[in-house]
Amino acid sequence: MKSFFCFYLIFSVHLVLCQSPLSERYHTYSDIIYQLFEWEEEFSDNQNPNQMYPGSGIIFHMEEIGRSNVDNLPIYAVKLSYNADENLDKPRVLILGQCHAEEILGVEISMELIKRFLNPNQYISDYSNMIGILNLVELWVVPTHNPEGLTVVHGWEQEGDWLQDVSFRKNKTDVNGNGIFDFDPSGYGNDIDGVDLNRNYDFNWIFGDPVGALDGGCAANPSYISHYDYYRGEAPFSETEVQAIRDFALEKNFLLSIAYHSSRSGCVSERVIYPWVWAGGKPAPDYEVISTLGQEIAELTPVEVGDGNYHHAASGSVKGNAHDWFYSKTGCIQYLIEVGTENMQPNDNDLIEDTIDRNMAGAFHLLRRAAGINLGYGPDKFQVTGIVRDAVTLEPLVAEVEVLEMSGPMLSPRVTNEFGRYRRLLYPGTFTLEVSAVGYESQIIDNITPSSSSITQLDINLVPLNYFTLGLGINLPSDRLQDVEIIRYYNNQTDIFQVSDGDDFYWPQGQYDLLFVSDDIYPKKISVDLNSNSNIDIDLNWYDIVFSDSFEGIDNWSIIRGDWNVSEGVLYSQEGLTYDSFHPLGPQKIDLSVPFYISNTWDDEIVVKLLMKNELEWQNDTLFVDIFNDTADRFNIYSNTSQNWDYRSEYIHAIVANENNYLSLGIKSDITLQYRGLALDQLDVLREVLDGCSLGDYNHDGEINILDAVSMVGAIVNEDYLTGFQDCASDMNQDSYVNILDVIILLTSIVRNE
C-alpha cells in the first residue's frame, strides 16, 4: 500500500513537472517519500544490509514524527545506526535538511547523507567515517519538516493550471483567515499566508516579526526586500511542523545537530552560524565549545567560487529561531549552515553535486565529534560522560548534571537520558560537575580535566536520602470544607499539592518552604526542616484587604522614571515592546502615592499578592518591589530576574513597622538586551484576621458597598451555597443564620457611612 501511494504521488507530479523551472535533480516532496519508503522496504528488516558493515544488524529505521499545519502531510525522520531497531545508549545527532521551503539544497545534502550510509561501497573515501559513526552514534535525518512549503516551491497543478512559487519561504498557514492560500509568485516576498518556521520557537519568540511586518533588507544587500517572509506565527509553537521538531528533540535528547539553510539575499551565504553572542558581548555559556566546533566545520567547507572556506559566526539575533532554542532548552548544540550562494537553486547539476560534496566533510566532522572519533584530522575529544545511579540499587537515575563553568539561568536543566547517561562536550581546562536528583544527596566533583585523545568516563552514584512522613492538620476558620493547596519550594523546584486535614506526605529529608493558599484565606507560609516523622497543625484564617488596585487607571501611583502605563486594566512597565536600558539617574520606577494603613494593633506581617507576568534578561536585569514609609525608610521585599510570561499569583510576605506604608515597583536594567518587563493585572495587600472576618464585605474586595448587598440578596433568593467566608461576612447580626435581616443591617450600615 505504501509503495502504491508513493508511486502515485511521484507519477502524478512528473506528469506536469516539465513546467517547473527547477532541475529534476532536486527532490520534490513526492520524490522524498518515494525514496524513503523504497529504502525502508530494502533496509528496515535487513539484518545484513552490506558486507562492509559486518555484524551491523539493521541500520535503517524510519518513523513519522508529525504532520504539516494545513495539508496534513507526514514528516518523516530516518534513524541510521548499527542495530537501528533497538534503543541503545549512543550519542544522538539530528540533521534537519530543510526548514524554509525555497532552501532546497539542504534536502539534497540530507538525502545524500542517507544514501551514502546505506551504500558504503559507492563511497569508499567515506567508509572509515561511516562505519565508526554507525557503530558509535545514533544519527537521525529529517529531510524536510516543511513539506507543504516544499510543494509550493516545486509547483502543483490545480484545475488545469500550473501554480508555483520558487521563492516561497514559509508553510501554508492561513494567516488572514480567508480560507484561500494567498501567495505571490512574482518575485520574492509579499506572500500574505504562511509562518516562518524558524521564528516560531518559544525562546525569544517575541522579537520575531509580527503579522504584516515589512522587511528592511540587510546591510550586505539592501535592495533585497522580502515583505512578510519572517512572520513568527500567532504564538510560540503555533505551527505543527515546529511542534513535531520540538517534541522529537525533547524525546531524543540530541547532543549535536545541523540545520541546513540557504540565503537568497546573499547576506549570510556560505556561513556556519551558532549560539550566540548577544549585544553587549554576552556569549552562550558553552560558547568556547560551540565556537570551536563551528569554526572547524566552516574551515572544512570550501566556498563555491575561488579559494577559501565558509565563514563562521555566533548568532546575535534573538528571534525565536531553532538553534538558540535547541541549545537553551535541550542542551543540543545546533549549527545553522547557510549552504551555497545567493544562487541557492542552481540548475547546473554539476554545481548541485559539487555543493553537496563540499558540505559532506563538515557533516562528518560533527558526527565524529559526537562519536569521539579523532583519528587522522578528526576533532579533539574533550568530553565527559557517565551514568548516574542510585548508590544502593545501582538503578540509573534521572538527574541534573551541571557543569558549573558552563551554566546560565537561560539554560534548562541538563538531565540524564533514559539510560541514566549524561554527556557534555568540553574544552581544554578544568571543570566542576554538580549532580543532583530529587531524593538524593547532591554531589560536587571538581578538578575534572578532559583529554583531547580520550573521552573522560565518570560514573556517579548518588546516595539516597531518608524519607519521612509529614502529617498536616489543616484548621480552617469555618466548618465548611474548601480546597487548600500547598505550594512546595524545595531544591529550586516548585510543586503544588492538594491537601486536606489529616493528610500525610512522604518526602525526602530536607528543608522545605510551604505556602498554603485557598480562596479568601490568608496565604500562610512556614518552613519545615524534615529530618524525622513530623506532625504540624496549620491554623488558617481569613484575610482583610488593606489595599487593592485593579488598575482601571494609574491615579494611585506616581511615575518616578520611565513610561509606565495602564491599558485594559493592566499596569505595564512601558508603552513599547520592551523596557528601557540602563539610565544613569536610576531604574525605571513607579511609586504608590496613596499609603496603605497598618494599625499598630494588628500583626505586623502582610502579604503583597501580585497577579502578574514578567520577562527580564536573566541575571542582568531585575524586577523589584520595595516598601517605604513617611520617614523614607526603604527595604526590598521582592526581586525577580527570570522569565515567565504567563499570569500567575506571586505572594510576597513582608514585615512592616510603620502605620503608613507605600510600595515601589521598578526594573533595574543594564545597557543591552531588554525584554517585555512587567504586566501587572491586580495588586492586593493582605493582612491576616485572627478572629472572625470583615462583616459586610461579601465580595471580599476590601470595600463594603451596595454591590455586597446585591450579591447577598441574590444568594438568599437563589438559595445559593455560601462559602465559609461568605457565610461569615453575611451574618451581620451574628445569629448563625444568613437572611434578609442581615441585608437590612448591611444596607443601614452603608447608608450611615455615606
Describe it for me?
The chain has 12 helices and 38 strands. The termini are far apart. Helix 3 crosses helix 9 (349-371). The relative contact order is 0.07. Strand 34 (622-629) and strand 35 form a beta hairpin. It folds into 5 domains: 2-371, 3-Layer(aba) Sandwich (Aminopeptidase); 393-462, Carboxypeptidase-like, regulatory domain (Immunoglobulin-like); 467-542, Immunoglobulins (Immunoglobulin-like, Sandwich); 545-688, Sandwich (Jelly Rolls), CATH 2.60.120.200; 706-753, no CATH class. The chain is globular. The protein is an alpha+beta fold and 754 residues long.
Mean pLDDT: 94
**Number of DSSP strand runs:** 38
Instruction: Give the end-to-end Cα distance, rounded to a whole number of Å.
Output: 81 Å
Low-confidence stretches: 1-17
Helical coverage, percent range: 10-25%
Biggest sheet features = 8 strands, mixed
List the helices and strands and how they pair.
Layout: H1 2-14, H2 29-43, E1 60-67, E2 74-80, E3 92-96, H3 105-118, H4 127-136, E4 138-142, H5 147-154, E5 156-158, E6 161-163, H6 240-252, E7 256-261, E8 271-274, E9 277-278, E10 282-283, H7 287-299, E11 311-314, H8 322-330, E12 333-338, H9 349-371, E13 383-390, E14 400-403, E15 421-425, E16 431-436, E17 443-448, E18 456-457, E19 460-462, E20 467-475, E21 484-490, E22 493-499, E23 503-508, E24 510-517, E25 524-530, E26 534-539, E27 543-549, E28 557-561, E29 565-567, E30 570-572, E31 588-592, E32 596-597, E33 605-615, E34 622-629, E35 634-640, E36 643-655, E37 660-668, E38 677-688, H10 706-717, H11 724-730, H12 740-753
Parallel strand pairs: 3-4, 3-7, 7-12, 8-11, 13-18, 13-19, 20-26
Antiparallel strand pairs: 1-2, 2-4, 5-6, 8-12, 9-10, 13-15, 14-16, 16-17, 20-23, 21-22, 21-24, 24-25, 27-38, 28-31, 29-30, 30-38, 31-37, 32-37, 33-36, 33-38, 34-35, 34-37
